Each structure stands twice: as C-alpha cells, then as structure tokens.
Amino acid sequence: MGFTGNIAMFSSILLIICLSFFSFQTTTKACHETDKAALLDFKKNIIYDGPYKRLENWKKDTDCCNNWEGVACDHSNGRVVYIDLSGKQLSGVIPSSVGKLVSLERLDFAGNNFSGCLPSTIGSLKNLTYMNLSANKISCSIPQSIGDLSKLRYMNLWKNRFSGSIPSSFSKLSSLRYCQISDNKLSGSIPSSIGYMPELQVLQAFNNMLTGNIPMSLGNLTNLGALDLRNNRLTGKIPSTLCNPIDLSTLDLSSNGFAGEFPAVIGNMSRLQVLNLSNNDFHSVIPSAVLNLPRLRFINVSHNRLFGKIPYHIFPFDPSCFGGNPGLCDSPLLPCNTTTA
Ligand SMILES: *[C@@H]1O[C@H](CO)[C@@H](O)[C@H](O)[C@H]1NC(C)=O
Ligand SMILES: *[C@@H]1O[C@H](CO)[C@@H](O)[C@H](O)[C@H]1NC(C)=O
Ligand SMILES: *[C@@H]1O[C@H](CO)[C@@H](O)[C@H](O)[C@H]1NC(C)=O
Ligand SMILES: *[C@@H]1O[C@H](CO)[C@@H](O)[C@H](O)[C@H]1NC(C)=O
Ligand SMILES: *[C@@H]1O[C@H](CO)[C@@H](O)[C@H](O)[C@H]1NC(C)=O
Ligand SMILES: *[C@@H]1O[C@H](CO)[C@@H](O)[C@H](O)[C@H]1NC(C)=O
Ligand SMILES: *[C@@H]1O[C@H](CO)[C@@H](O)[C@H](O)[C@H]1NC(C)=O
Ligand SMILES: *[C@@H]1O[C@H](CO)[C@@H](O)[C@H](O)[C@H]1NC(C)=O
Q1: Which residues form the Disease resistance R13L4/SHOC-2-like LRR domain (predicted)?
Q2: Taking the domains of the chain in order of start, what are their residue ranges?
Q3: Structural domain 163-341, CATH architecture
Q4: Do residues 275 and 294 touch, judged by C-beta distance below 8 A?
Q5: Distance, CA 113 to ligand 1 centroid (Å)?
Q6: Is the CB of 240 under 6 A from ligand 6?
Q7: CB atoms near residue 2 (< 10 Å)
Q8: Contact criterion met (CB below 8 Å) for 262 and 289
Q9: Which residue stretches of the chain have pLDDT < 70?
Q10: CA–CA distance from 10 to each of 13, 15, 94, 337 (Å)?
Q11: Cβ(243) to ligand 6 under 6 A?
C-alpha cells in the first residue's frame, strides 16, 4: 500500500514537473525584433568573419535567442543580454545600432580586428556591467557617453588605438571596479574627476602618452588596490593623498618624468607589495620606512638620481633594483666610500 502510494505520488510530482516545464516553454519569448535588427545590422558591418564563418547562423528567418553564435537572451522577454564574440577573428566596425541592444549586460568583443570609432550610442546600454573590447584596432576618442554606463563594473579597452584624452565623464562610472585602458594612444592629463569612481579597485593606464600630474583626487579612491601608470609622460610630485587607499598593494609609476624627492608618502602605504619607480628623475635619499614596509616584496628604483646610503632592510632585493643611480651605495650595491660616509 505504502509502495503503490509512493509511486502515485512520484507520478503526480513528475506530471507537475512536466507541466511546469511545458508552461515555461510556452512563455519563452523569441528574439525581440529591435534586437534582431540591431544584430543583423552589426553583421552587415562585419567585412570578414574569420575562417570558420562564425556568424553564418545569424539569419533573418531564425530566432536570435536560439543558437545564434555568441548571443544569449532573457527568455522572459526575448531581449539580448549577452554577446560574446571574443577571439573570433572578426573584422569591421562596430555600428551605432549596437546602442539599440538596451538590455545588454555583457559585451565581449575582445581579441578581434574591430576598427573605426566606438559609437557614442554605447552610452545607451544602461544595464551593461561587463565590457571587454581589448586587443582590437578601435580608434578615435573614448566617447563621453561612456559615463552613462552607471552599472559598469568591468571595462577593458587594453591594446587598441584610442586617442584623445580620458573623458571627464569617467567620474560617473559609479560602479566601476576594474578599469584597463593601457596600450592606447591616450594623451592629455588624468582628469581629476577620476577620484569620483568610488568602487575603483584597479586602474591600469600604462603605455599611453598621458601628461601632467597625478591628481590629488586619486586619494579619494579608497578601494584602490593597484595603480599602474608606467610608461607615460607624467610629471610633478606624487600627491600626499595617495596613502589614503589603504589597500594599495601595487604601485607602478616607472618610465615617466616624475621628479623631486623620493615620495615620502610611500612609507605610509602599509599594504604595498610591489613598487616600481624606475626610470624617473627622483633626486634624494631613499626614506628608510619605504624599504621596511612589512609586505614589500618587489622594489625597483633604478635609473633615477637617488643618492646616499641605501637604508638597512631585512628583505633581500636584487642589485638591479637600485642600479643606474650613481650616488647610491651600500648593500645590495657596493659599500659606501668610508672616508665620505
Ligand atoms: C583587419 O581589418 C583590416 C580592415 O579594417 C584589414 O585590412 C586587415 O586585413 C584585417 N586583419 C586581419 C588579421 O584580419
Ligand atoms: C535593466 O535591469 C533591470 C534590473 O535587472 C531591469 O528591471 C530592467 O528591465 C532592465 N532594463 C532593460 C532595458 O532591459
Ligand atoms: C578580456 O579580454 C582579454 C583578451 O584581450 C583577456 O585577456 C581578459 O582575460 C578578458 N577579461 C576577462 C575578465 O575575461
Ligand atoms: C576628492 O579629493 C579632492 C582633493 O583631494 C577633495 O577636494 C574632494 O573633496 C574629494 N572628493 C570626494 C568625493 O571625496
Ligand atoms: C619596473 O620598471 C622597469 C621600467 O619600466 C621595467 O623594465 C621593469 O621590468 C619593471 N619591473 C617590473 C617587475 O614590473
Ligand atoms: C605618515 O603617517 C603618519 C601618521 O599617520 C603621519 O604623521 C605622516 O605625516 C605621514 N607621512 C606622510 C609623508 O604622509
Ligand atoms: C629594474 O628596472 C630596470 C630598468 O629600469 C631593469 O633593467 C631591471 O631588470 C629591473 N630589475 C628587476 C629585478 O626587475
Ligand atoms: C672616496 O673618497 C675619497 C676622498 O674624498 C676620494 O679621493 C676617492 O676617490 C673616493 N673613492 C671612490 C671610489 O669614490
């Protein structure tokens, strides 16, 4: 009796599961017409879609939510929420119609051969949280409208041909945690509005042509863990506010035109693990607090005009980390001249 009763119960549970699956199927919406039109316009702008013809199944008479390469939808309304076409060897420009995909949350075009400008309609993608456009040939300025992406948490524009300056509208990217704009041709100064991105954890802008000072406002970025501005044309002093981000563990300001005294503020960065100040024009002694920061594992202050005795430190550093400063002496370099020390 208990046995047959169990079977009956299982059968009805099974039936309910089947029914709910069926009703779920029937409420699944096909691709929204606006989104399909935008995707087809995008395809029209692709002049070459690689040896594997990845966009071949993007066809007018099929449902874009069903089996279109790299496309995913919210099945409750048929809106496209996800496009991942990374590494597909696509060539062409990104058309302004991309801005019609208003429900998009993730956009990944990384590692293709996209060229032309990034259309300013990108700012219409208000729900975008992830954007990876790295390793393409996208040129022109970064559009001001990028600041409208208030939900954006991850932005990667690494290795393109963006020129012009960093838009001041970056300050409106209030959810941004990761900002990678390195290996472009960006010029002009770092806008002080950058200090208004409260969530920022990583800022990488190396290998550009940025000029001017590091703005004081960078000290407002209290969640900042890594700052990499190496190989630009930055000058001036390191602002004393830069010790406010208490999580800062990586600081790379190498190959710029920073001058003046070795920034004493670095001695207060208690979480610092990696410090690279090489190839600048710092001219002073090295403050002993810096070499004795508890977590410091890598330092490179080579090729400046530092002088005097390298302060006593416990962690062993490579001599090449201090080289190219003719006035520096003591371990790990040669002993100081005893008659002058
Ligand atoms: C990249 O696109 C350009 C046209 O924009 C084309 O001339 C070039 O051959 C493409 N390169 C590759 C590797 O597909
Ligand atoms: C954006 O996301 C919110 C929250 O998930 C949602 O309610 C809204 O409908 C989305 N907007 C669009 C245009 O899809
Ligand atoms: C973004 O694309 C690059 C390739 O250009 C890749 O190395 C990186 O991991 C991607 N980001 C994420 C979070 O997957
Ligand atoms: C950011 O820093 C600047 C200069 O250090 C300061 O005047 C400003 O009040 C700060 N803003 C915020 C939002 O903390
Ligand atoms: C430090 O900076 C110099 C000059 O930019 C570079 O050659 C060296 O590789 C850097 N070291 C590390 C570990 O980043
Ligand atoms: C380092 O921190 C101490 C204590 O908070 C402070 O008195 C000192 O002025 C700071 N030094 C620098 C260079 O910011
Ligand atoms: C320090 O930087 C110099 C370039 O300025 C480089 O030649 C040297 O190898 C670096 N040292 C280490 C340990 O990375
Ligand atoms: C050490 O100092 C003496 C006296 O000032 C000077 O004659 C000598 O050349 C110095 N040696 C080196 C290696 O700098």
Answers
A1: 123-244
A2: 163-341
A3: Alpha-Beta Horseshoe (3.80)
A4: no
A5: 6
A6: yes
A7: 6
A8: no
A9: 1-27, 338-341
A10: 5, 9, 53, 90
A11: yes
